[in-house]
């Protein structure tokens, strides 16, 4: 991850796999693996870096992930994985020393994204909670420390490599130094974009939800149980199952509208109707404890009416016509009109998670996108199609099929973005090597004697290879 690669042994495929491997070593997106791995019933601390530790289970999980990303297993793979875990903890220790922090709001946003990914992978929020027998909020509590550490390590790494750049000449030299027999063969790749339009919820629908919450508030004030009504009416499945109880959260954890209203309440007091990006809330403060507070809510999410959707369809049709008549480019239209934050800043295009390239292998496409584009011709734009956004809203989208590249061996013309990414990763690895060799003597690091053959703190760092 963080070491110099011999100049006579470049392997583009290795470098293209490197980013995904780094992410896996920093922190997993899924729930933490059970420490009692097969054939190993007792977990133990195998490395300490100041106040941070590496467990044997951390190493085994990261080793399995590294093995999946590297086709040829080298004898010292486990040592290299442990070295990367130690470097990760060293970055966290230096973040403490240098007072590097991440905002709680950003941690919450990252947690939300991870939960959305897990939900989309398993099919629904309800399926996720049923499978793991815990609520999404419980997942967030368990993952919070892990995610925060990952973000701190990434922030440190970004600061260390912030000035690392590659010129076109360096990219070309990097590519020319790769042996011909080491060039990867890329499968069919496509460039596909989308413009999503989420209909605005009409005033009538909001008024209906607000009136329903006012009615529920009145029932609670007359003596009905908040928790019972939350279980029946709240459209936040995770907290509804707990009677609307969100548990304890610190300042900055909730969206501002919710937090401001909750903190103004006295214990057991009810709020007015509060609107946030998630919908309309009726909030009750349960208790305060230092800088944390515990509250519960009933959430109603007003939905778009048929007319709202039809208005959005008409607008999206107009955007499509403007693109087809060359009045505006697809890229400009996506940036100006799309409500999907993930793709709009890329001109509407989907990107490869590892290289950030707009060229994506067809086998990595979302199945829905694959089947939509399978019968399309290059340059075509679909008519408005229904789609459900990550936060569960009904929306419409256009799909644009920009290009298709047949299977081929890596070359500068078709794969410049990937090669540039690989060259940049090599230079960043060299910068991290120098930082590690310079910094490892500044903090307390202890490696279990069981791993003495790894020689992690001796000499220059070396690199995970294929």
From TrEMBL:
Residue ranges of the TM segments: none
PROSITE patterns: PPIC_PPIASE_1 (PS01096), PPIC_PPIASE_2 (PS50198)
Record's signal peptide: 1-35
Domain of life: Bacteria
SUPFAM superfamilies, sorted: FKBP-like, Triger factor/SurA peptide-binding domain-like
GO molecular function terms noted in the UniProt entry: peptidyl-prolyl cis-trans isomerase activity
Keywords: Isomerase, Rotamase, Signal
Protein name according to UniProt: Peptidyl-prolyl cis-trans isomerase SurA
Gene source species: Flexibacter flexilis DSM 6793
Organism phylogeny: Bacteria, Pseudomonadati, Bacteroidota, Cytophagia, Cytophagales
